[in-house]
Amino acid sequence: EKEKTLAIIKPDGLYGNYTENIKKAILDSGFTILKEMTIQLDDDAAMGFYAEHSSKGFFSSLVKYMTSGPVLIMVLEKENAVADWRTLIGPTDASTAKITHPHSIRAMCGMTLEKNCVHGSDSFQSAEREIAFFFDEKSSDRVVIGH
Ligand code: CMP
């Protein structure tokens, strides 16, 4: 059964020109990129997307980071997409990833716990909510790359 997940290349990932390498890793791992768009998040969008973290001490810093430049948002599809994309990106803390998961995407392009260059939905329920946050089900903003 195919499953969808939401991937985001964060501002540091775009700014560091990691997009090509990240997309290659995505396609080499058997995902289909169903939709993609590059957008500049404003404060409201970043705060809405990360609402579950609004009480955390790092929230304002996270919003500042996520609005510091454009992001590339993608809907990925394959069997077991949510878990497999989380595995491919590696641990949240990119400095840990460089040691424990050196072949992960965060080891390649991330820097720290906050500046970890990519996002992945943490569950099937999160994926449904996050995809609906950015993409209109009926819209034709549709590209299909790979598989
Ligand atoms: P992400 O997987 O997109 O989910 C929430 C983001 O908040 C996370 O990646 C990091 O960018 C950031 N984050 C998570 N935990 C912390 C933390 N303890 N300190 C600073 N930033 C964090």
TrEMBL record:
Protein name: Nucleoside diphosphate kinase-like domain-containing protein
Keyword Amino-acid biosynthesis: no
Catalytic site: 119 (pros-phosphohistidine intermediate)
A GO biological process held by the record: GTP biosynthetic process
Residues of the full protein shown: 38 to 184 of 187
Catalytic activity: a 2'-deoxyribonucleoside 5'-diphosphate + ATP = a 2'-deoxyribonucleoside 5'-triphosphate + ADP; a ribonucleoside 5'-diphosphate + ATP = a ribonucleoside 5'-triphosphate + ADP
Alphabetized GO MF terms: ATP binding; nucleoside diphosphate kinase activity
Bilayer-spanning residue ranges: none
Stated family: Belongs to the NDK family.
Keyword tags: ATP-binding, Kinase, Nucleotide-binding, Signal, Transferase
Keyword presence, Nucleotide-binding: yes
Residue intervals of the Nucleoside diphosphate kinase-like domain: 2-142
Species in which this protein is naturally found: Rubus argutus (Southern blackberry)
Annotated residues for binding of ATP: 10, 58, 86, 92, 106, 116
